[in-house]
Design a protein that fits this description.
The structure is a single chain. The chain is an alpha/beta fold and 152 residues long. It contains four helices and five strands, in the order E-H-E-H-E-H-E-E-H. The chain has one domain: Cobalamin-binding domain (Rossmann fold, 3-Layer(aba) Sandwich). The chain has a five-stranded parallel beta sheet with strand order 2-1-3-4-5, sandwiched between helices. Strand 1, helix 1 and strand 2 form a beta-alpha-beta unit. Helix 2 crosses helix 3.
């Protein structure tokens, strides 16, 4: 079943989307995952922002909103709209700390679970802990033959 993730991040940290796209291309995000990002527009008020984001979430049938938390600050109206819409539309919402950053999370995101920056964590929360969207390849060690009687 296809899944869709809306990645929320500021424009100067959009390069982290390439990491998600790489994980997705390699199949680490599941079988059929669609990733999307919308640049923060220069809308005048909160209600215009919320209506715009809501349209994007509904049209793309988004299953998860993933807020990338780096050192740059998010537009507070965008964050507020995403948090409220996630609750209204029953969409999963998580924060993900960008590696090497230490900025404090927005007050509006303080109650949102922060997950680690790796594909397995995203998959676990996107699909649920019991569902296995893909099988990770782990080479099995080759069995060692038992010692022959001659060697003893």
């Amino acid at each position: 079943m296809a899944k869709s993730i809306f990645v929320s991040c500021v424009d100067n940290e959009i390069h982290w989307m390439k990491k998600f796209e790489k994980w997705n291309r390699k199949g680490k995000m599941g079988d059929n995952v669609y990733m999307m990002h919308e640049s923060e527009q220069d809308f005048d008020d909160y209600y215009t922002i919320k209506a715009y984001i809501k349209e994007q979430l509904i049209v793309n049938n988004v299953d998860m909103i993933l807020v990338l938390q780096g050192d740059s600050t998010h537009n507070e109206d965008w964050i507020r709209a995403e948090v409220e819409l996630a609750a209204d539309l029953s969409i999963l919402l998580f924060c993900m700390r960008v590696p090497g950053t230490e900025a404090q999370r927005s007050e509006q995101l303080s109650h949102i679970k922060e997950i680690s920056f790796n594909p397995n964590t995203v998959v676990r929360f996107l699909y649920g802990k019991d569902e296995k969207p893909y099988r990770r390849y782990r080479p099995r060690p080759k069995p060692t033959p038992p010692p022959s009687e001659e060697e003893e």
